[in-house]
Amino acid sequence: MFKRGWRTSGVALASLLRHAPRFLHDSPRTPLRVLCIAALDTAHVLRFKTPMPRARVDALAMFLDFGACTNAAWDRKPLDEAERVALRQRLDASGETARIDEYLTRLGDLESRRPPLGGNHRRFDEVRAYREGVVRVSLATATAIAMGTESVQAELRATERDSNFETLFRIVMQCQIVDDVLDYREDRASGLPSFLTSVRHLQQAIVMTADAVRAYGGHWERSATRGVLPLRLALRAVTFLTSLILHVASAPLLGYSWAHEKAAHESTRLHPVQWWRARR
Question: 96: which of 25, 26, 91, 174 fits an S-S bond (Cβ 3.0–4.6 Å)?
C-alpha cells in the first residue's frame, strides 16, 4: 500500500509537470481547469499505463472552456457567444460531436428542472441534487473525452464506483460552494439556485451548507481500491479552505442579507398619507 501511494503520487506529479505549460496558455482559461486536466491525465495513466494523447488533451481543454460558457448561458450571465460557437465548432472538428450533443441534452434536461428559490430544508436538498447532477454530467463528459469512452452514459456507469472520480467530484463540489459564497449577492439578485440562495433564511442555508462541506470531505469508499493519495490530500486541503471561507464570509453575508431584507420591507411600507388615503 505504501509503495502504491508513492507510485500514484509520482504519476500525479508527472502529469502536473506535463501540463504545467498550460497555465500560461489561453486554453483552458483558468488554473483550476488545468488541474482538472492533470487529474484526468493521472487517471488515464493509472487506467491505460500511458498519458493522454495530445489530441484528447486539446479536446478536453476546449470542452472545459465550452462547459463554462454553456453554464454561463443557462445562468444568463455575460459571455462571449462568438467564443462559445467557435469552441463548439472546434470540438466538432476534433470528433467530439456525439459526446457534446449528449452532454447538452443531459444538461438541458437538468436545467429544465432547475428548482426555484425560497423553500425549506427540502428545497435545499433539491438544489443540492440539481447542482450535483450538473457537476456529475460535466465530469463524466470530461472523463469520456479524456478516456476515449464511447458515450457519456457509459462513463457515468464506469465511474459510479470509481474512487478517483468520486474524489474529484467532491473536490469540484467544494469549489462550487466557494463560488456560491463569493457570488451570493449576484446569485440572489439574479434568482439563481445555489447552496446559499436555496432557502429563505440565509442563516439556515449557511448551517446546511457547512454540513454539506463536511459530507463532501468525509469518508467514501465503494470501490475495491482507494482513491489516489494526491487526490485525497487535495480533497482534505480544499475541504479545509472551503470551511474557512464559509466561516469567515458568514458574518458579512448575514449583514448584507439583513440590510437587503430591511430595505425590501421599508420599500413596501406605506407613507402615513398613503395609508390614510387607502383607509378612506
Answer: 91
Supply the pLDDT for residue 276: 45
Long-range Cβ pairs for the range 72-77 (8 Å, 24+): 74/107, 74/111, 75/190, 75/192, 76/190, 77/190
- Report the alpha-carbon angle 90-42-142, nearest 5: 35
Q: What is the pLDDT of residues 57-69, one digit of tens each?
A: 999 999 999 999 9
CA 87/CA 67 separation, integer angstroms: 10
Prediction pTM value = 0.86
Mean pLDDT (whole number) for 166-181: 94
**Within 13 A of 182's CA, how many CA atoms are on the CB side?**
9
105: helix, strand or coil: helix
Query: Which domains occur in the chain, in start order?
Result: 9-279 (1.10.600)
* Grid cell at residue 172: 469540484
Question: Tens digit of pLDDT for each residue in 105-118?
Answer: 999 999 999 998 88
pLDDT in tens, 85-104: 999 999 999 999 999 999 99
Q: Which residue reads 462571449 in cell numbers?
A: 80
Q: Count Cα neighbours of 98 within 13 Å in the Cβ-side half-sphere.
A: 10
DSSP notation for 53-92: PHHHHHHHHHHHHHHHHHHHHHTT----HHHHHHHHHHHH
What residue has cell string 493509472? 46
